[in-house]
Amino acid sequence: MLNINDDEINYGIYRSDDPLSNFKIRVKLERYTSNSLIPSLERLKIQDDLSRLLDNEGRGLEKMKGSNADVARLLDKARSEEYEQVDISWQQKLFNQVEFEIYEKDIGPDSTLVEQQYFNEIGKMKKTRRQPGKIFTYIEKDPYCAERNLDFFMTDSPDEQPSQLALAINTFQKPPVFPFQIRPSNEAFISKINLIHENPTLHEIQTNHFASLPYQTMYIMADLSDRIDATAGAAAFGSRTTNEHVLCQINAYSNGTIVLKPDFNTGKLAYMIESKNFNNDFYQYYIEHVSIPVTKDDLRREKRLLTEVAARQQAYLTKMVGKKFDTPPPNVLKLNVFGEIVSGKNFDYDNIYVYYCLDLTDNWYVESSMLLSGYTHTASSTASSKYDDIVYYSYPFEFEVWYKPSPHAADHELPRMPKIYFQIASLDSWNRHRTEGYTYIDIPSIPGFCDEHLSCWRPYGNSIFDELRRFYMGGSSELEDISYVAIPKSFQNKNNNKILSRFGFRTASTGMLNIRLNVVFQSQSLAKEYKKNPRSSVVKHHGFNAFMTNINDTINEYEQAKRRAFAVRERVFREHNFETYE
Q: Which residue, 576, 532, 563, is CA-closest to 550?
């Protein structure tokens, strides 16, 4: 549940998967300033006018002495005017006095189904001598909900009417709930594959262009108008004005969200409303949630049912995936890299794209179908601040590589991790190509997430003509081998005594590239380590180092077992030779 205070109006937002037919609200309405015992000038005037109209001779009627039954009826009527309590279900219709007088008349052949239904309900009320109270409701099929939506209005005036544009927009913002229908088509339809619909319906157009869910509305109202013989009042004044106030507005959305305006105030201060009649009375009311709670047996049965449904879904997913989960061979490490080129900033020119490639070191290999390089799209910069021009890419890439240590290199230091090289270049509308920078990143040897901002550099020409050519004609100095951004493989070999020297190589600092990497390690050694100690931080924080440690431990154990086997064989040979000699 979420409470939102907007202009001192308390909103309540709830989520429920239960049917709305179980939703029930209790409303308590009470007069705060009681004037029932003090006759007002308006009441005295109305009584005087009625006495003159009902007396044929123009004389006032004599005041008759009331019996005990009349006094009790008047006390009950006065008590009902002071306090009223109603339990309301979802989309339950309660009539006010005006609707009671309108729908009790005979309906004609042109009447709608709603009018016929209301006529039958009022007929049942008249048979049981039930009269409408102060609290009534407007439900979804009433004209009030369709034409008098409070979101349409720009002011709080009760005389304001919605415009035709507001009513037209409401048809889009509040789409009707239609059942799902499969349309016959000659083309095969696959969910999430056929994204383009050639001939959409009006409902599909409205649903796709407006991000709003279908919902139903219900208003709980209060009629605070004076009630002094409504029939005689209508005969005397020819019409009857209403004094309606919204006590609560309820919106139920198709995703199970229920919005109350205002929220329940059980145990809190009462909501106050002011009647706009002659007496100017104040009323206070409470809104309570009185839905029947679920019993313990039903709750236990529901939990058991949900558990069975979850188990069946899990069994279905297990059947779809299969039991043969892809695991790497023993003593082999599988490395998955899920990366994203997020953005770049502070480069010299606009319309920039990025070239990336993966450089594998010794004992690392990939499958033949794996792509080790790629290009991003060309993007223009966005001025996000006074000093930074940011180019957003959000370009994803991924690699799947394998590591199998050689028997001779297992006892030595850890091998180098693969590198990812990046080359940033620009291409303008005149097809002038310029190199904007180089950078690289080592894939972390720790599993998890990393967000890096890589500084870039580019080769700088030896003369001013190189920069003039870069500005006017395009083209600039580039690296023949992109691995020279870091240390090439030829210089990483220990048998090579050459020294990599960049002395005299001129560079210029350019912008920065934002890279995000998600690194995943998978091996049987890590799985065994996790089974031994699930809470071990070695597997979580050392990843590749833990894998290499397990490999070294395995090789050490193998060497010890081999030495023990040689010792046993030598002892057996000595004993056998000694027995033969004797």
A: 532
